[in-house]
Records
---
Amino acid sequence: MKKLLVTGSSGLIGSEVVMHFDAIGWEVHGIDNNMRADFFGQMGDTRWNQKRLESTCRNFHHHELDIRNRAGVAVCIQQLQPDLVVHTAAQPSHDLAASRPFDDFDVNAGGTLNLLEAVRLHAPEAVFVHMSTNKVYGDAPNRLSLKELETRWEYADPSDYNGVREDMSIDQSKHSIFGASKVAADVMVQEYGRYFGMKTCCLRGGCLTGPNHSGVELHGFLSYLIKVNASGGVYHVYGYKGKQVRDNIHAYDVARFIEYFYQSPRSGAVYNLGGGRENSCSILEAFAHVEALSGRKMQYTYTDKNREGDHICYISDLSQIKSDYPEWGITKTLPMIFEEIYQAWQERMVDAVKNA
């Protein structure tokens, strides 16, 4: 039986990877210490997801481990001897990183290096997939020529229509402290592939989403937006007239790609992985989507100041990833994603009332 180790296994992508590989017969081990609750408080708590995985997956084993624990990570890799390591654990917030820079860097950069070195020393044949982020490009995507439409910003140059390509520079731009720590991790994952010949991959995610996201204001765009509408709350829009665009990819399609990469791995691979143009929407367009589902008007406030390093329009160009892995593609459309997340929040709110 093939063996998988997932870091951040109680999070959005981690839990989807756990479920996907468990369903196809792998032995799955997850590392998670619920640090999201430390970062974001009770609303970021992921213990509910850990319990769900333990109760529904046939071959899932949870390990309470902090990836900053270098010795603990090394022992875990040495004992498990995984065939595949999927690294999804991270501090994911721009705003939080600025107030806790050491925690941010120690988790995002140091934790990644701990895992890479442990794999190199104790399981060098394992495939290593790292969930990077489009924030490694900093605010460079904002230099692309844009035009303002009624509900969104759009690329003005037809050559940019498909979105941001992997050859965009990650240098000489404002990243945010979070973006800088993720750059360090991203480059290190590439280097372990190129320098040591390990089978590694950086997936520079767009808006990763799905029904198992513990979305909060500081992280989890669609999940949090839909939750606010479903609960009758107020959403806060920061700059760009609410017309900033994101492409959204369901965690299931991320997990599917990881399986394809494992079957045909490369060394030092880098891919932009998002929903592409078809799954893109602005905040204003997202409001319209969720209003149609709930029948409830979105309540929001607006601040003209945008978040530092925030992208105005970001769509992942999927040309390279589809060229290298033509059998992979997006299966979860934007309407499907909205419906799944909305239903999940409805169920969670019912459960919260029952357990109150």
---
Amino acid sequence: MNGKIGFTCAYTPVPLIEAAGFSPFRIFPESKAPDQAGHLLHDNLCPHIKKVLDRALADYLPYLSGMFFINSCDSMRRLSDAWHETRPNDKTILIDLPSVNNNLSLDFLAKEYERLATTLFQWNNKAFSLTEIEEKIDTWNSLADSVKKIEENISQNYFPGYISELQKIINTAATDSTDKALSMIKNKIEPGTTAKNGLSPVFVFGNLLFDPKVYDLFEKWNMYVTASDFCTSSRFVSKIDTDADDNIFKSLAISYLDQMSCARTMDTTKPGGIAQKIAQQAKESNAKGVIGFTLKFCDPYLARIPMIRQALQDESIPFLMIESDCTMGSLGQQQTRIEAFTEMLGV
């Protein structure tokens, strides 16, 4: 590997980064860096974006061979602009992401992914190779299959510490390499502990929840997560359907737009699709309740919470909404609410 490519969005095709000879590095909003982003960005902006920028301002990052941005929302676009001001010598690329899923959008995104791949190979002075891209996709899909098997185990029984181990593997795929994550997961497909009872089964969703210690905290707070839907959880390791189209980049576009359920992406044929999907995931994972963890000032998610609440109410599934700023401290402030909610659910 010839260095790391930084990125911040789950719509990033990691196999393209690795095929070009780089390793991925997802910049999580975790940092002891001072709060300086307000000098460049508005205070009432997504805390995810501001904390990533804080890392850049404090140089709290490894050496990056380049930085990849996706214009998934206005805040992400503002981060790209601020990055140029903060680190003007970095190689960067910004691609646009359609907000709807239709044939025109898929064709557009396929061309954007092809432009990304071409740029990455050029950055590494490496000959463009579809074969290497396909090989890296196969490895990625092996990881995705293993993640799915673990998720199936988690949805059936409570195994202490199992989901936090899964999050460590997903984080490795995001910040190190698919190969290393795959080697880690081989011995984790079957849980290493005995199934236990006594905690409330809950489905959780939202923007991002990436720290494995969070899931251990949940278990201390009388709940266990039967499944999750975050851009930093198993949704990030979605399988790529290489048979979706003869063009590998069109297959990538179809796979990412079809499988992702980010609040910023809409299906115009099913306006309330995200709400129905969350209710369905909660039922399929045998959860007794649902907790939504959304970021402050995230308009796409906040705008969809009412329809999500209604969809869960229609299914008689209790719902707790929590708004935070990505920090463990802000989550700790919600402990009383979470414990009260899970006690109400029972076991």
